């Protein structure tokens, strides 16, 4: 299946034919009950399987769907009932498979609204924007360098063009062989990127993996460069849900799944998954054990490690050891503040920041989220969200929250006099870390057990996808792997091309090797 928007996009690339097999649903006598664990990216495992007639049970440990994009109700000190979450998530236009998933709930993607720009601000006064950067490669990268105040001519002459050549023809998965042993920091230092560009544009990329650039694999950073600059025509512009995640995404998607007879076991943690001698697995969840023909484990890193540690016969010993060694990125903080007065009218809905201590970005929620806009209109206030990634695990949390607020006062000085009507601070540490040299140890979608597949943003897909799009794509790949066993055609997936798009750039990059 090809999604209509993808068919129009020259940058799109059908990365993998659907699983070979007949385009058919399971017949009643062949329907295998499959186990799906976890909700995000909701339809992924389910849409892929349930649309082909598989009987699916979904387990979610938390009381609400959505994983890292879950939403929950909270009452503010002014008596308002609002939805809290981990907040701002950019739905980039290159997220073809995630968008395909969301189209199951609304074919027109009416739940997403465009954010006009992706501005970046450095404490030293430099300001970058992507709205006016051309989107067609190679003009996207050249245009960014030409328009960005972080690239001066003198800086350009100091750069090492040879070291930059691998950026021109990024091949997936070969990029991991080439650059997984180097840190993002060292790679950029080798190119001698202008200091300001290093901090502003590239550090923002690496921190979107919640990691310090000194720890992050250069391959992930270069992959991001490929996805957003030379590999696609959509640039760095994105959309966001126009209401809190639960209302915009999860309620419609869960209705879709229920319409396909998925059994939803929310608030039920899976404890163990053990191979059943008769085939498939015996899964214990919520004190009940049940047999399933196949299992998709779509869990965050700590969740996957806990299930695997309690399932001593799952897959094989070396796989279990590698799962046990996966790491999570350092803690991050999301602070949402309900202020008694508005921020300045020209403040962007989202601003990436650099050089403001731990502050990574500031969002003004009423610019794009209906619920926040209604609160702001009713009270005359503003709903502002601050993100700080890769915080020192030993840091004093209250002090970090205060420090983050101080940075807001620097970035948006009008907030200094604002009274905080209420605040929520979310501290978590459950995003996967992609450390230098860690690629080979990440789990792939398939395991040695053909009835056990893995999905999620921690998974090695060998495709140019990251973050939410990696979660969605790996979910479809997992469903396809199971459907293949039953001779049923899976979902055709789309990604940006797996190698550089321009012949000239490929030739230049060839010089480096
Ligand atoms: C603050 C923040 C900002 C982000 N911004 C962006 C962004 O702008 N763009 C972007 O693309 N990505 C962003 N991300 C990353 C994005 O959230 C993740 O890539 C995505 O949510 C991963 O989805 P997933 O399904 O792999 O994992 P998760 O969403 O973590 O889902 C895993 C699920 O497994 C469940 N689970 C765990 N153990 C068990 C068990 N034993 N039994 C049953 N269920 C279990 C968990 O409860 C959870 O629901 C951001 C993340 C954060 C935290």
UniProtKB/TrEMBL annotation:
GO molecular function annotation:
oxidoreductase activity
* InterPro entries recorded: Amino_oxidase, FAD/NAD-bd_sf, Zeta_carotene_desat/Oxidored
Q: Which Pfam families match?
A: Amino_oxidase
Record domain Amine oxidase: where: 49-483
Output this protein's name. FAD-dependent oxidoreductase
Q: Which organism is it from?
A: Streptomyces parvus
